């Protein structure tokens, strides 16, 4: 039972836990519950009931029991409500950590894959006791060499090997030839072998074509020394569509009077080729040698040719005449000047070598009847040059044909004294005297 206070209104009571005045109506409509709620609110904020000067109600009194019951009910409900809402935890740091770990795992996986790819592609190929023979051709690029190595099981990845060559500045010193390599060799061992040109000897054919040989003589020589089929060789020499060795063969005139279109274009030289090379392979190799030799002429040789009004075909024709008529090099420009002078005067060349070309068999001495053979190659009957070359000229004869000596000579005859030289003349009368001198040398 509380103690009356002078400042409290008589019409109601004032809660010691708040300033609200409760009327009798409030009490009857649940004002006690409101007070209890207010009491609980104050208890929740402070953690305990606020201390007052009011004495506690006597134990067992109705007011005390009622207040305790009223105060316990909202406390229980509020506690239950509070217990039913779990505390909110911050998960953001853990999400970031997992994202970082996943990203790191992906990066490591990619890097591991790249490293494995590089390692596997650059490591030596599977070792084998069986050697492999490969061929590196002249001018082959490093990338193509890498492809050949991969195709033969000597490396694992041509692209990676090419990149490695670029990184190391290698590949430009690889030498052409036949190589024997063993699967399992390291990439550096392979590079060193290709750089050093450690080639193996391959089976080859070697043959020499003398200067002044005709196509038929070349075919015979190849049949004797290189096991070449003569008929197939001559057949290939008559098919322009198959020739790929020289750019100048495209300018050969389509003249039905040509005995062999390729006559004079197969350069005389000593050749070494792979055994098993075809007749066409040999022809194209000899044609490429002609281009190589023409490249050795002075740089302005084509301009000189145009100034003289000559084609390459005509140049080779004159050179072949010089080749068959001259033995001593010093006389090549002189004989060339005789040909030039006669062409200028529109005189028949009257060169015995063109008659010999017509005959089935070479003769030591021509007869009067031989000079009357009806043929475009007969320079006794026809003025000007023959349809084409009559033999394969040397480079010196080509140079003499391009740059003839300066002379007024129109005639020449062999001395027949064993020196293989000639007597030259400007007039026919002087030429007759030279012939007599030549005959005297024979009688000696």
Automatic annotation (TrEMBL):
It is a single-pass membrane protein. The record marks 325 as: Important for catalytic activity. It is found in: Cell membrane. Residues 1-86 are annotated as: Disordered. It catalyses: a peptidoglycan chain = a peptidoglycan chain with N-acetyl-1,6-anhydromuramyl-[peptide] at the reducing end + a peptidoglycan chain with N-acetylglucosamine at the non-reducing end. Its EC number is 4.2.2.29. It is an enzyme of class 4 (lyase). One of its GO terms (biological process) is cell wall organization. The chain crosses the membrane at residues 95-119. Keywords: Cell membrane, Cell wall biogenesis/degradation, Lyase, Membrane, Transmembrane, Transmembrane helix. Residues 41-54, 61-81 have a biased composition (Polar residues). GO terms for cellular component: plasma membrane. GO terms for molecular function: lytic endotransglycosylase activity. The keyword Lyase applies. Belongs to the transglycosylase MltG family. Functions as a peptidoglycan terminase that cleaves nascent peptidoglycan strands endolytically to terminate their elongation. This is Endolytic murein transglycosylase. It comes from Cohnella endophytica. The gene is mltG.
């Amino acid at each position: 039972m509380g103690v009356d206070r002078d400042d409290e209104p008589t019409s109601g009571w004032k809660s010691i836990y708040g300033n609200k005045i409760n009327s009798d109506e409030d009490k009857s409509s649940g004002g006690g519950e409101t007070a209890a709620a207010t009491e609980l609110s104050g208890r929740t904020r402070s953690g305990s009931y606020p201390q007052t000067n009011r004495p506690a109600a006597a134990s067992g009194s109705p007011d005390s029991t009622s207040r305790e019951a009223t105060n316990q009910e909202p406390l229980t409900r509020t506690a239950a409500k509070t217990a039913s809402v779990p505390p909110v935890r911050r998960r953001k740091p853990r999400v970031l950590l997992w994202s970082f770990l996943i990203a790191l795992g992906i990066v490591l996986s990619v890097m591991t894959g790249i490293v494995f790819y590089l390692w596997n592609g650059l490591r030596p190929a599977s070792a084998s006791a069986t050697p492999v023979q490969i061929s590196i051709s002249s001018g082959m690029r490093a990338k193509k060499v890498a492809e050949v190595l991969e195709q033969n099981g000597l490396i694992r990845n041509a692209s990676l090997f090419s990149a490695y060559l670029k990184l190391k500045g290698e590949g430009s010193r690889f030498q052409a030839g036949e190589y024997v390599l063993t699967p399992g060799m390291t990439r550096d061992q392979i590079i060193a072998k290709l750089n050093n040109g450690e080639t193996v000897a391959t089976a080859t054919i070697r043959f020499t074509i003398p200067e002044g040989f005709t196509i038929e003589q070349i075919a015979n020589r190849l049949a004797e020394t290189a096991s070449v089929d003569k008929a197939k060789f001559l057949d290939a020499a008559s098919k322009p569509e198959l020739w790929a060795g020289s750019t100048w063969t495209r300018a050969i005139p389509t003249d039905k009077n040509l005995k062999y279109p390729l006559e004079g274009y197969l350069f005389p030289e000593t050749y070494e080729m792979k055994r098993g090379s075809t007749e066409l392979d040999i022809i194209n190799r000899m044609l490429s040698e002609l281009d190589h030799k023409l490249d050795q002429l002075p740089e302005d040789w084509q301009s000189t040719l145009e100034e003289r009004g000559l084609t390459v075909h005509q140049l080779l024709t004159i050179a072949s005449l010089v080749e068959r008529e001259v033995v001593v090099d010093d006389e090549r420009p002189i004989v060339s000047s005789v040909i030039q002078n006669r062409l200028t005067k529109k005189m028949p060349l009257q060169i015995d070598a063109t008659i010999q070309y017509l005959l089935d068999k070479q003769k030591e001495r021509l007869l009067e009847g031989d000079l009357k053979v009806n043929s475009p190659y007969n320079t006794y009957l026809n003025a000007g040059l023959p349809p084409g070359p009559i033999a394969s000229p040397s480079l010196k004869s080509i140079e003499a044909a391009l740059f003839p000596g300066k002379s007024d000579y129109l005639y020449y005859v062999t001395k027949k004294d064993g020196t293989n030289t000639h007597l030259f003349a400007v007039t026919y009368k002087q030429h007759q005297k030279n012939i007599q001198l030549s005959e005297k040398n024979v009688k000696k």
